[in-house]
Known about the structure:
By secondary structure, the protein is mainly beta. Helix content is 6%, strand content 47%. The chain has helices at 7-17, 245-248, 271-277; strands spanning 2-3, 33-37, 43-44, 51-55, 65-70, 73-74, 77-84, 87-94, 100-108, 111-119, 131-133, 138-141, 147-150, 165-170, 176-179, 182-186, 189-193, 202-211, 221-230, 238-242, 250-253, 256-263, 278-282, 285-286, 291-295, 299-304, 312-316, 319-328, 332-338, 354-360. The strands form six sheets. A six-stranded mixed beta sheet has the order 20-22-28-27-25-26. The chain has a five-stranded antiparallel beta sheet with strand order 1-7-8-4-2, with no helix packed on it. A five-stranded mixed beta sheet has the order 3-10-9-5-6, with helices on one face. Strand 23 and strand 24 form a beta hairpin.
Amino acid sequence: xxxxxxxxxxxxxxxxxxxxxxxxxxxxxxxxxxxxxxxxxxxxxxxxxxxxxxxxxxxxxxxxxxxxxxxxxxxxxxxxxxxxxxxxxxxxxxxxxxxxxxxxxxxxxxxxxxxxxxxxxxxxxxxxxxxxxxxxxxxxxxxxxxxxxxxxxxxxxxxxxxxxxxxxxxxxxxxxxxxxxxxxxxxxxxxxxxxxxxxxxxxxxxxxxxxxxxxxxxxxxxxxxxxxxxxxxxxxxxxxxxxxxxxxxxxxxxxxxxxxxxxxxxxxxxxxxxxxxxxxxxxxxxxxxxxxxxxxxxxxxxxxxxxxxxxxxxxxxxxxxxxxxxxxxxxxxxxxxxxxxxxxxxxxxxxxxxxxxxxxx
Length: 361
């Protein structure tokens, strides 16, 4: 019969064959898989193209996974079995024998093997287009979407496990928690599924130190990291202020060293939006901040102005803080405005106008 492995089915089959605690190596063939042909990195003429794997046991046809690609595309063909000298040879016969770079995946039981060869001419490794989903810095990633990381080179399936593939939830406190995932491999792509991830939460996907298949000119190990934020549909919500001007509308203090506006714990403000939509006035004049810092994972200076009054603005993930330096101890009125277009990193607008004041008496 003609057998062509569709992409989604191959994901499932590979997931079942990926490394686990009891799995033997994909390249160790000392039990069921005895040998294969053509040899890894070898060259054959298209007219002589024959692909087979020798097994030590008689296989059940329905449990055989035999997939072949040529230059990155599926190769349709037929599968047959022949007994030769007390071993069982499983053939994959392509419908069309054409030249190109071939990659072969064979799996039976708990054993798999993966190799490549070239039909006519000098062997050259197949180069893929690197890609990933989500991308680094992506916002509003769907809660139940599958993630993947695609490398330029094919990946050894034996090294895909919980040590090399991790999904990490980053809490508002910056503590990190590893999220259980299911993983599978499609040639050069590591596919990760975590079920439903949490709303309005930052994550990091890591695929580190996986081993590329040992073809000529391939790098020894491959790594990729991407940080992303899950779907967030809630507008920024203010939960508190200091001094307590949010409730009183105008707080009175005898000394003012700083003020802050706090948002929900899981909030992530857009720092450029804060710059445009957070306004401070001191005694009727708009304040120009001497320095503006973004304080997320690290402290980053994003703007500096040469002015004599050193008032600094710090933008945290869920907090806006103003530092008045040595403080204000004499009569002064500080007015604070938050404009409706202030937004979070997912693009949600606060859609409200806030006006408060602090009197230093």
